[in-house]
Amino acid sequence: MENQRTLLYITFFFILFLIWQAWQQDYGPKPEAAVAQTESQVSMDAVVPTDTPTAISITDAAVPGADMSAVDRKVVHVVTDLMDLEIDSKGGDIRRLDLLQYPKSAEEKDVPFDLMSSNESYFNIAQSGLISSSSEAPNHHAIYSVSQDEYRLEDGRDELKVTLVWQQAGVLVNKIFTFKRDSYAIDVEHVVKAGTETWTGSEYRQLVRGQSDRGQSAFIYTYTGGVVYNDEIKYDKVEFSDIADKDLKLDMKGGWVAMIEHYFLTAWIPDQQQNNFTYSKHPNPNRYILGMRSPATTIAAGEEARFKSQLVAGPKLQDRLEVIAPGLELTVDYGVLTILSKPLFWLLKVFHGIFDNWGWAIIFLTITVKLVFYKLSETSYRSMAKMRKVAPKLQSLKERYGEDRQGMSQAMMRMYKEEKINPLGGCLPILVQIPVFIALYWVLLESVEMRNAPFALWITNLSEQDPYYILPLLMGASMYIQQKLNPAPMDPMQQKIFQFMPVMFTVFFLWFPSGLVLYWVVNNTLSIAQQWVITKRIEAS
């Protein structure tokens, strides 16, 4: 029994250690970033790579159309049913994007969440452009003209188009943004019409981001950084430290690149049948670039070609993401336990559909998981109950054999055989359940549906800590009661350590999201009820 208990605590502490270690890696102390840059410096941050065999050479000193004094630089304001954003006519960059359906926080419900921003405190923008080795082409430094300063998706319309125009040396480019109702995917298209000469060039798209933890909790780790995906490499994280250490250079078919954070993402998605060069850059201490560039396309004089991409900017809603592009739903990062987390999330949504409350959905999901593992838990609790029943005999053996450990072990094995007790009988059932409980932990942590979701009474946000610490205290109390139902360790030092466990875990859980703590309280309560019934039956037999 002591082996079983020790195994449980070692496993739990190992999980906590991994979470803490991951947090230190991503959110620990970092070297101070350079001072905030001027607007001219920011504009030169993202440089298209030129050191690859398939690249088309370009330098900042020879940017076609980089300074068109005849065209005024403008900020185009666009409002749809889901987004409020700004497009800079310089390059057609999206430099601000607010999500209208998602408040900034539970305390600022009237302020939309700012997913993209050009502010130095949280720099996150999307750039795209064209490059050519022999002809004029507008990259993200070029100035476009635009017919109006504001566009709105009117009631009764399902689509809104915003067109930016660039023309130089006979080459005409229309950069068209298409917004659709109830969609976080933005179609971005460059329509190129060659002039009197053949035009050859390619399209690039890139995400430019500063490193910011966005107020992440020190006790809850979630990944913030880059991701690359296609059918061959699958889901590969590109951390900020990786981008800083070495430029990514990768040729791949289809796929996508993304910058993700807790609950939200921005991603560029090219034509899935197209081969793209995927790259990263780290131009200065607080800029991290992840992008893709298409192969070169040749357009005959007077002819036209279209370069199409899609920008996704919004919450990590699995159902929507998996429709947009293969593997995009994996940005809801369940890790190695995705195969278990997905069905658990599906079941959680089923219960939410019934109760229309994520708190009650968590409760009934926990009950369902306990029912599924009822027999396994019963095996474990029966082992604990039998060990509790023979605890006085074990104490007598200890007093009889004193320091004779070998004699003590032999006597214990004889007693286990006589009492028909397997001291390790409860270990396997617990080990089987641990991956499921960890998977459920990640479901509750990663699901954007939990963000700012109310439950009942004082719990108004399941993604934030309990403001009055009632749930963590209940969790600690339930853990203490569970310990009392278990046989006490014979070693006095172990007894003191185990008595301190509920206090320590209560402190840990004070800052955990209340949705996670709710799960543990319900799970512990159900375990206490099951264990109490089984213990009484064994003791009465």
First-last Cα distance: 20 Å
The strand order across the widest sheet is 6-8-9-10-20-16-15-12-13
What radius of gyration results from the CA coordinates? 29 Å
Q: Which word captures the global form?
A: elongated
Helix content: 25-40%
Mean pLDDT equals 80
How many helices?
Answer: 13
What does the secondary structure layout of this molecule look like, with pairings?
Blueprint: H1 2-27, H2 39-43, E1 75-79, E2 83-88, E3 93-103, E4 112-116, E5 124-131, E6 145-146, E7 150-152, E8 159-168, E9 171-180, E10 185-193, E11 199-209, E12 225-230, E13 234-238, H3 240-245, E14 249-253, E15 256-261, E16 264-270, E17 275-284, E18 287-293, E19 297-299, E20 304-315, H4 318-324, H5 338-355, H6 358-372, H7 374-389, H8 391-401, H9 405-419, H10 427-446, H11 470-485, H12 492-509, H13 514-540
Parallel strand pairs: 1-7
Antiparallel strand pairs: 1-2, 2-3, 3-4, 5-11, 6-8, 8-9, 9-10, 10-20, 11-18, 11-19, 12-13, 12-15, 14-17, 15-16, 16-20, 17-18
Question: Your description of this structure?
Answer:
The structure is a single chain. With 541 residues, the chain is α+β, with helices and mostly antiparallel strands. It is built from 13 helices and 20 strands. The strands form 3 sheets. Strands 6-8-9-10-20-16-15-12-13 form a 9-stranded antiparallel beta sheet.
Q: In summary, what is this structure?
A:
With 541 residues, the chain is α+β, with helices and mostly antiparallel strands. It has 13 helices and 20 strands.
List descriptors:
13 helices; 9-stranded antiparallel β-sheet; alpha+beta; 20 strands; 541 residues; disordered N terminus
